[in-house]
């Protein structure tokens, strides 16, 4: 039984009830029909959903339909889960049953992810497991990983503080500075080098991110392409942007492979190669690894550059926005920073345990807001019951 859990990919959604939605590819909606609103013939609920912000419509519908309900958008039927309990049950308790990824009626994702070759779009198979393992291992999970993340972050924080100080107490929009900081953190992990914001590469990545967000929204512009891919032959505007996104993705990949080769020459004898790019290239070279160049291209551009930068930078930007409206919280945060860190040094990971207010604020911000309010699409691999309702 196929299922599909999708998301308004990387749309910046201030303060929304997180929800996930699951798409079913075939078979009846449920043995006991899931609650739903009657839609239009052919279009289903398409015109009842706020196209750029579907999560707001779903939050509203939860009040009447409960936390597990179905939605029909053109030919695709989804199951929306919109409470902590329902999401936990689907992704944690019954995670294996929901570990599939949709491939039907997903034309835009197929184009964008190189025929479903990114971690986000691969089925739960051996290749996906291997790619995830390499990324986790190289980025943070094992041994000295967190120390390296700490060193990279400290360097980036220093840069960020200098940029903020450079504003000289005048008001400014920190979006670009935050974006550049996060992007360079990713670039250090991938390639062991940073870029300045006026380099062409940076501009390309920014354009890649902005256009990808616009073209991939689940119910937003271009959703019709998923069901009627032939529309691309009739001047479909979203398809034109999607083509540009794929072109940018390929340019970014080429640029990164060139940078990686340049980096190879700079490695000293006996020096450990800590670049994620190198670990992925090694896996590609392994016999029978099942990993192809297409996987590498998609993992690096989609899963790390785009997924890592857009989510983290938009979250930080959103957090600053929220905090700026809560002066009492700012004062308490400042008091804790002054007391624990002072002004002679930079924050480090071991300070975490001594800063309960800062930690609680971060967790509350993650709970209160979401930049990926509909998470990623999943499909179910078998009939499953969520909150007492059958999801086929
Ligand atoms: C504040 C920061 C972040 C937020 C809010 C966020 C959010 C999410 C969400 C909601 C999912 C979907 C989970 C699911 O439905 O199964 C996801 C998956 C994913 N994220 Fe993030 N993420 C963040 C940071 C990052 C970073 C830094 C990276 C890369 C370095 C990353 C790469 C990925 C990948 C590859 C997946 C797919 C995982 C899989 O399918 O196994 N994310 N993220």
From TrEMBL:
<dbReference type="GO" id="GO:0004508">
    <property type="term" value="F:steroid 17-alpha-monooxygenase activity"/>
</dbReference>
<keyword id="KW-0479">Metal-binding</keyword>
<dbReference type="InterPro" id="IPR001128">
    <property type="entry name" value="Cyt_P450"/>
</dbReference>
<dbReference type="InterPro" id="IPR036396">
    <property type="entry name" value="Cyt_P450_sf"/>
</dbReference>
<feature type="transmembrane region" description="Helical">
    <location>
        <begin position="6"/>
        <end position="23"/>
    </location>
</feature>
<comment type="similarity">
    <text>Belongs to the cytochrome P450 family.</text>
</comment>
<protein>
    <recommendedName>
        <fullName>Cytochrome P450</fullName>
    </recommendedName>
</protein>
<dbReference type="GO" id="GO:0042448">
    <property type="term" value="P:progesterone metabolic process"/>
</dbReference>
<keyword id="KW-0560">Oxidoreductase</keyword>
<keyword id="KW-0472">Membrane</keyword>
<keyword id="KW-0349">Heme</keyword>
<dbReference type="GO" id="GO:0042446">
    <property type="term" value="P:hormone biosynthetic process"/>
</dbReference>
<keyword id="KW-0408">Iron</keyword>
<keyword id="KW-0812">Transmembrane</keyword>
<keyword id="KW-0503">Monooxygenase</keyword>
<dbReference type="InterPro" id="IPR002401">
    <property type="entry name" value="Cyt_P450_E_grp-I"/>
</dbReference>
<dbReference type="GO" id="GO:0005506">
    <property type="term" value="F:iron ion binding"/>
</dbReference>
<keyword id="KW-1133">Transmembrane helix</keyword>
<dbReference type="Pfam" id="PF00067">
    <property type="entry name" value="p450"/>
</dbReference>
<dbReference type="GO" id="GO:0020037">
    <property type="term" value="F:heme binding"/>
</dbReference>
């Amino acid at each position: 039984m196929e299922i599909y859990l999708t998301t308004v990919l990387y749309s910046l959604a201030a303060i929304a009830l997180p929800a996930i939605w699951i798409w079913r590819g075939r078979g009846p909606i449920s043995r006991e029909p899931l609650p739903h609103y009657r839609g239009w013939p052919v279009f289903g609920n398409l015109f009842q959903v706020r196209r750029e912000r579907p999560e707001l419509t779903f939050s509203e519908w939860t009040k009447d339909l409960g936390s597990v309900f179905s939605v029909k958008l053109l030919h695709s039927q989804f199951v929306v889960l919109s409470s902590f309990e329902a999401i936990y049950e689907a992704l944690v308790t019954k995670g294996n049953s929901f570990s599939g990824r949709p491939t039907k009626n997903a034309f835009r994702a197929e184009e964008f992810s190189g025929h479903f070759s990114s971690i986000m779009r691969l089925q739960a198979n051996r290749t996906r497991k291997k790619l995830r393992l390499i990324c986790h291992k190289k980025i943070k999970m094992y041994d000295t990983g967190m120390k390296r993340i700490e060193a990279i972050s400290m360097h980036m924080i220093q840069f960020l503080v200098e940029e903020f100080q450079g504003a000289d107490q005048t008001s400014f929009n920190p979006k670009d500075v935050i974006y550049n900081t996060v992007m360079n953190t990713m670039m250090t992990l991938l390639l062991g080098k940073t870029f300045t914001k006026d380099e062409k590469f940076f501009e390309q990545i920014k354009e890649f991110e902005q256009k990808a967000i616009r073209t991939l929204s689940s119910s937003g512009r271009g959703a019709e392409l998923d069901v009627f891919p032939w529309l691309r032959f009739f001047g479909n505007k979203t398809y034109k942007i999607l083509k540009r996104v794929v072109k940018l993705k390929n340019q970014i990949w080429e640029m990164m492979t060139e940078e990686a080769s340049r980096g190879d020459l700079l490695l000293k004898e006996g020096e450990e190669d800590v670049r994620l790019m190198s670990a992925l290239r090694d896996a590609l070279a392994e016999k029978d690894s099942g990993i192809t160049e297409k996987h590498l291209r998609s993992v690096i551009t989609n899963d790390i550059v785009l997924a890592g930068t857009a989510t983290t930078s938009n979250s930080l930007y959103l957090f600053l926005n929220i905090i700026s409206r809560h002066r009492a919280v700012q004062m308490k945060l400042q008091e804790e920073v002054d007391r624990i860190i002072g002004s002679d040094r930079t924050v480090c990971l071991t300070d975490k345990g001594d800063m309960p207010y800062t930690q609680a604020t971060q967790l509350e911000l993650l709970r209160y807001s979401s930049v990926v309010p509909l998470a990623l699409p999943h499909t179910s691999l078998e009939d499953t019951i969520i909150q007492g309702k059958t999801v086929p």
